[in-house]
TrEMBL record:
It comes from Xenorhabdus bovienii (strain SS-2004). This is RHS repeat-associated core domain-containing protein. Gene3D superfamilies: RHS repeat-associated core (2.180.10.10). The lineage of its organism: Bacteria, Pseudomonadati, Pseudomonadota, Gammaproteobacteria, Enterobacterales. NCBIfam families: Rhs_assc_core (TIGR03696). InterPro entries: Rhs_assc_core, T6SS_VgrG/RHS.
Length: 229
């Protein structure tokens, strides 16, 4: 693990830094982040600030503002009070930086529906899938959608029973997937949960569905089972 801390002067010049080294003595951590939106170019000593470069020595930009006076009365100036204002794009100062909206698991799940072959949108709620939970997904392949072991058992390990219960349309050439793979959840994981009902054109539905957005690295494949045609 590497940890760094950075102190800046009033106008953004790197004053001093402290690095706690990793276990590898040949690896060192450098921090080139400066004010919000700025990244130091080590060769020139200037800070890349999206639309312009900022000089920490003169505390101003090296080029005039592309917005002309709309960006401020001084076309070369940075913000007048860097302890309260930022200029993340090199255009004009602002007292707030809006964070990008974070998509909830249920919002992510719904985004896959309401269009194309799946016009209906199921009801999902946000849950946390506990560590060591076993989930099932169609095989071969892996994606964001899973169900439970009991759902496969209730479907009699039947291809049609499973995929019509999950309202998944068959591949036009190869049909339904021939099997299911069991995965163990390696850590508590945010997910969306719902009972499949909204697209009856693909089957009766009624089986539980768990949708995991970032599944890479947190699901361990255990075994696969063949479904009955």
């Amino acid at each position: 693990m590497q940890v760094w801390t950075q102190w800046l002067t009033t106008w953004g010049k790197a004053d001093k830094s402290q690095v706690i080294a990793s276990n590898n003595p040949d690896f060192h951590v450098n921090c080139n982040l400066r004010f919000c939106g700025q990244y130091e170019d080590e060769e020139s000593g200037l800070y890349y600030n999206r639309f312009r470069y900022y000089s920490p020595d003169t505390a101003q930009y090296i080029l005039p503002d592309p917005l002309n006076l709309a960006g401020g009365v001084n076309p070369y100036g940075y913000v007048h009070n860097p302890s309260k204002f930022v200029d993340p794009y090199g255009l004009s100062s602002t007292s707030e930086v809006k964070a990008a909206s974070i998509q909830s698991p249920s919002e992510f799940a719904r985004s896959w529906q309401g269009q194309g072959e799946y016009p209906g949108v199921d009801r999902f709620k946000d849950i946390t899938v506990k560590k060591d939970t076993i989930l099932m997904a169609g095989a071969p392949g892996q994606g964001n959608f899973y169900t439970t072991v009991s759902a496969i058992e209730r479907s009699g390990f039947s291809q049609e029973g499973v995929f019509k219960g999950l309202q998944v349309m068959p591949h036009p050439q190869f049909g339904y997937r021939p099997g299911m793979t069991a995965y163990r959840v390696l850590e508590d994981t945010p997910a969306a949960f719902g009972i499949v009902r909204a697209n009856p054109q693909h089957g009766a539905g009624g089986l539980p569905q768990i949708v995991i957005k970032n599944y890479e690295g947190i699901l361990e494949p255990l075994y696969s089972v063949k479904l009955i045609k």
